[in-house]
Amino acid sequence: MTNRNPTLDASPVSGSRAELTFAPVPLQKQFSFAHEAVGHRKSKVVLGVDRSSDAERMNRPISGAGYTFLLAETGIECLALVRRIQPRLIIIEIDLPHLSGFETCKRLRADSAYHHIPIVFYTNRNAFEDVRGSIDVGANDYILKSAGPGRLLSRVNHWTCRFVRPAELYRVHSARRMLAAA
Q1: Where are the domains of the chain?
Q2: For tag attachment on the chain, is the N or C end more exposed, with fewer CB atoms within 10 Å?
Q3: How many Å is the Cα radius of gyration of the chain?
Q4: What CATH class does 43-181 carry?
């Protein structure tokens, strides 16, 4: 069945009366999943880590995949950077100087302008209380550093892809589930 749009043909066919004709409506441009799925790789990712060795280890897979990598070395610097550039993803450590990762996440979640940005904790701390704390402040994911760069890149791809539900709709409420996935 072809979509037709009724249009008024103003050209006189018989007499002075205009006729009603149907012209085909152009079909909408086909959605290209491959194009859209690759487009997310141009996203900006803010990384809040307190050691340059961690930054280097994380920079390689993230920037190598085409993401723009922006480093914040303190929690306060992370907040300022997020407010300035509106990234697609925030990756932070729990132990940031001046303002902890928990407090940084809590402040970002308190501001409605940033509730849509996913926040991922990337840390060596795997205690149940730390995972529970990250859930309580509004984190979307929790990745252990021991999982390696492949796991990190996989989660970055997941959280920056356009087809993922907005961060505010996808919050994990089970610390055990989040720790098992880390």
Answers
A1: 43-181
A2: N
A3: 24
A4: alpha beta
Q: What is the pLDDT along the chain (182 residues), one digit of tens a residue?
A: 444 444 444 444 445 454 444 444 444 433 333 334 445 556 788 888 877 777 777 777 788 888 888 888 899 999 999 999 989 899 999 988 889 999 999 999 999 999 889 999 988 888 889 999 999 999 999 999 888 888 888 888 888 876 555 555 555 556 666 666 65
Report yes or no: 45 and 160 within 8 Å, Cβ to Cβ.
yes
Which residues fall within 8 angstroms of residue 21, CB to CB, at 6 or more apart?
6, 7, 8, 9
pTM exceeds 0.70 for this model: no
d(CA 109, CA 135): 12
- Residue written as tokens 């940005």? 117
